[in-house]
Amino acid sequence: KAKYPKYFFSNLLSSVIGSENKTKEYIDEARRLNIKILNPSITKSMNYYTVEEDGIRFPLSNIKNVGGVTCNDIISKRDNYKDIYDCISKILSKNVNKKVLEALIDSSCFVDFGYNIKTLNDNLDNLINYANLAKDLDESLILKPEIEIKEEYSKEVLMEREKELFGFYLSNYPTTSYKAKFKVINLNEIERFFNKTVDVIILVDRIKEIKTKKDEKM
Predict the structure, then answer these.
(1) Which end of the chain is less congested by CB atoms within 10 angstroms, N or C?
(2) Rounded distance, CA 106 to CA 100, Å?
(3) pLDDT greater than 90 at residue 175
C-alpha cells in the first residue's frame, strides 16, 4: 500500500467485485491518496481492475446488467475496432443484447469513438440493425446508418444513470458544482479544524426510519 498503491488498490477492488459498499469504500480511500479511478472502456477494461499510467481502470464485469460471463464474451472478441459500427457488429451476441449495450453506453464505455451518451442511446436501434446485417453480409454491401448527433444529457441525468449502474457516483458528484460556489472544506480535512465552526457540503443519500419502543418514528 505504501510503495505500490495503484497495484494494491487494483487487487483490493478486484477482490470485492459485486459488493457496492466495499467497492465504494475502497474507491473513496484510493481517491484520498490521489489515485484516479478511470471509467470503464470497451477497448481497455478487463474483468478485473487494471493499473494504467493515469490510474486504475474500472472493469466491465462490475457494471450492472453486464457481469462476468458477458464481460468475458466481449473481451474474447476484442479487436482494433475501426469505428462504432465495427465495434457493435463484433460484440453483439446472445450475451451482448440491447440491454447490455445500453449499460455499456451509460457507463461511458464507448467514449473513445467520439460520441456522447445521448447520441449513442438515440441511435442504438440503427446501430443494432446494422450489426445484425453485417453478421450475414459483406460490410461493403451495407450502407452505414447516419448517426444523428444529439446534445448530451444534463449533468444531473448523467449522474443518476451512473449511480444506477455502479451503485455510486464514479466520475461526477452532485456536490461538485456547489463546492465551486462556496468556501467549504472536505470531510477528510475536518480533523484540522478541531474546535472551530466550518462549512461542508454533503449529499443525503438515504434516510432510514425506525420505530422506537414508544412506537414513535425516529
Answers:
(1) C
(2) 10
(3) no
Q: Work out the mean pLDDT of the chain and round it to a whole number.
A: 91
Contacts 24+ apart (CB under 8 A), 51-57: 51/6, 51/7, 51/10, 55/6, 56/6, 56/9, 56/10, 56/13, 56/30
Each residue's pLDDT tens digit, 23-78: 999 998 998 888 999 999 999 999 999 999 999 999 999 999 998 889 999 999 89
Are 61 and 48 in contact by the 8 Å Cβ rule? The answer is: yes
What does each C-alpha distance from 152 to 14, 155, 172 come to in angstroms?
31, 9, 14
Asked if 167 and 24 touch (Cβ cutoff 8 Å), the reply is: yes
pLDDT of residue 211: 92
